[in-house]
Amino acid sequence: MSRREFLKTAAAGTLLVACGSTMKSSEGGGKEGGDDDVTPTEDLMREHGVLRRVMYLYDEATRRFEAHEEVPLDALAGGAQIIRHVIEDYHEKLEENFLFPRFEKAGKLADLTAVLRRQHEKGRDLTAQIMALAKAPLGEPDQAKLILALRSFNHMYRAHAAREDTVLFPALHSIVGKHEYDEMGEKFEAKETEMLGDHGFEHAVEAVGKLEASFGVDDLAKLTPA
């Protein structure tokens, strides 16, 4: 039984990025596996964790720009690459193809899914801006545009991901039965295997960790307020 991997080259390096996660558990959604088994909704929420770690780097880059401190632009571009390949090209496509249509067909949370779809589109526009601007040399006008794009992305996606985690994903069980939920897990597995290969979630986390090290914020203990 396979795990999933997505290998991409990030800006100015050979950063491995990956998306997806490990095999789905047989307990409510997927194949039987080992200790790393996750259900379809847990899978999506773990990917939100990858999203939030990149968003932290976006916050840190913005802070450093405004404090006239050095920003590792290669690592910032690498974060945007992870968002593009892990979140937008894969994670959001799962939501758009497997989750949103089910809610819309059931006549439940359709207003929410419509907003989420529009935000996916806007997020892709913002990621394209960040990828285009996060390169040296960076003049003041482009730096201002980059700061605005980083802030806009984080402002929208903090609310976006939180609303999915607390409203959309928990409501999935109310519109699908166990059999359909299990089938969804199998479809997630097949799609991820087709697109991404092996060890996807682990590689995504490893890739974000390397970017955090480039920013010098990889030691979590140092982020604790005094």
Question: Would you mind describing this structure in some detail?
Answer:
The protein has six helices and no strands. Helix content is 67%, strand content 0%. It has 226 residues and is mostly helical. Helix 1 runs antiparallel to helix 2 (73-106), helix 1 packs antiparallel against helix 4 and helix 2 crosses helix 6 (200-215). Mean pLDDT is 84; it is low at 1-35. It has helices at 40-66, 73-106, 110-133, 140-171, 178-196, 200-215. The chain has one domain (40-217): Four Helix Bundle (Hemerythrin (Met), subunit A). The N and C termini lie far apart (46 Å).
Nutshell version of this structure?
It contains six helices and no strands. The chain is mostly helical and 226 residues long.
Draw up the topology in text.
Layout lengths: L39 H27 L6 H34 L3 H24 L6 H32 L6 H19 L3 H16 L11
Task: Provide the helix percentage.
Answer: 55-70%
User: What is the count of distinct domains?
Assistant: 1
Strand content: under 5%
Tell me the distance between the termini. Answer: 46 Å
Which CATH top level class fits? Mainly Alpha
- Counting DSSP H or I runs of 4 or more residues, the number of helices is 6
